[in-house]
Amino acid sequence: MATTVVVADDRQHARAALREALSGEIRVLAEVTSGPDAARETARLRPDVLLINARLGSLPGVAGTSVLVFTEVGNDVSVLRAMRSGALGYLLETAPPSQIVRAVHSVAAGAAYFDAKIADYVTAALGDPDSVRNPLPQLTGRQHEVLELLAAGLPNPAIARQLGISSKTVRNHVSVILTKLGVKDRSLAADLARKALCLTDVP
To answer: What CATH number should be reported for the domain holding residue 156?
Structure first.
């Protein structure tokens, strides 16, 4: 029986390229363009694998379906995000068709598959559970708390009330957080936090 997949990507040319790469050995049950559509079609069709672009956001989890993520860049944040969200495999968009097919078959069989270009990082992360639990190790516990509230859209006074500290202390924490993360403003820090910590975007 052929391995079945649902392909999720918001770009028509990317879906076409994946469809061509998978033709012959793997049956594409559906192509979708958003995260919610991916979740709905995966639940309805129950494919062996959901092949989804990381740009579509949070990964839907459906029993019996393995998730294979693909993206343009294999950086630390995106890899950890995929791992924390339950993905069994991670593939770069530059992968040749033969590698895509191999990755789909691997995760369909329940085996993890990570692109060779990021294998060393994945091995290190799996060997050090703290790196998965704490994807921003440069921050202290209090700075993590401030960053999560900042990412939730709270202004400094509200963060201060939530944590029982002064607004001045919050400002100091935010300044240090921006420096440690190498970003220039709160919005960039919030975006990085949502990606690294798998937080939900502010409505």
So the answer is: 1.10.10.10
Are residues 118 and 149 located together in one domain of the fold? no
Give the whole-angstrom CA distance, residue 13 versus residue 24: 19
Higher pLDDT, 59 or 202: 59
> Could you tell me if 27 and 117 lie in one domain?
yes
Range of the domain at 98: 4-127
**CB burial class (10 A; 0-12, 13-18, 19+) of residue 200?**
exposed
What per-residue confidence (pLDDT) applies to 203?
A: 42
pLDDT of residue 6: 95
21 & 49 share domain: yes
Of the candidates 160, 156, 150, the one whose C-alpha atom is nearest the C-alpha of residue 199 is 150
Q: What is the pLDDT of residue 155?
A: 92
Q: Phi, psi at residue 21, to the nearest 5°? A: -65, -35
Q: Rounded CA gap, 43 and 164, in Å?
A: 43
Overall number of domains in the chain: 2
> Alpha carbon of 183 to those of 67, 107, 139: distances in Å?
31, 36, 14
Say which residue, 126 or 38, is predicted with more confidence: 38
Q: What is the mean pLDDT of residues 186-199?
A: 73
Query: What number of residues does the chain have?
Result: 203
